[in-house]
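Request from the bench team (R.T.):
"We need a structural guess for the complex before ordering more zinc ion. Sequence and SMILES attached. Just send the tokens back."

Command: build protein-zinc ion structure.
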Amino acid sequence: MKKRVGMVGVFLECNRFSPVTTAAMFAQGLDLTGAELQEELAQMAPLTLPDTHGFMQEMSRTANWDPVALRMAAAQPGGPAEAAFFEDFVQDMELRLKAQGPFDGIFISSHGAALSTANDDPDGQLFTLIRRCVGPDVPIVAVLDLHCNVSDAMTEALSAFVAYRTNPHTDLKARGVEAAQHLQTLWHEGSGAVAHVKLPLVPPATAQLLEPGTVYQALMEEGQRHVAGAILNVSLCAGFALSDAPKCGFSVVVTARHGCAEQARALAGQ
Ligand SMILES: [Zn+2]
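Reply to R.T.: structure attached below.
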């Protein structure tokens, strides 16, 4: 039986003090649903982000699966999304999840530093809704920007959390491939565990460069040394301070194999 994987995306990096991002701005960027999205995902060079393309390619190379296009939207970095757009997005997603389920897995491509004019954690709201709709045992894997502002609502809803490990960001496709590999591991072994620790610091943009010799690069390499055995992924997210939200700040997020939640918590807190 082919595995059915719901494809979801919402990508907006929010500066609290910039003008509101409207539905029209998403329409100018990317906002595709259903058959239109399905067609776009099948293109050689789709408009969706490279993480999604990498995920699709790796799944098609290694799994017997069908992508089920739900909705993917992206806008240029800007101010908070207008509340009506985001509420519509969530309601529309719920209808699509109910109409097109059941699913064997969900893939989410998200920036993770979105705001709406009514909500400081729309990503958390969306991820929670998806978890509620698909149930506790369906793996939900997400690829997020290194500048995502991570909340517990986001990580508690996910089965695997994969953030970019480069800045400037050059590894989106590789992280999509990685997410596909984690999804298949979780299918074989059972749903994974995601642990999140928020550090009491907000690093400035000038401290977020990743290249040899920088502190952030040394931290990233230290994190990767722990990826083996029970640990599937270590993500170190600097966050996006200009979102000016309660969930801003540096986050350590660890994804472990099924049954290894304690190892994930221990490493994240280390
Ligand atoms: Zn970024």
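Two things stood out. Residues 145-147, 169 surround zinc ion (CB under 6 Å). The radius of gyration is 17 Å.
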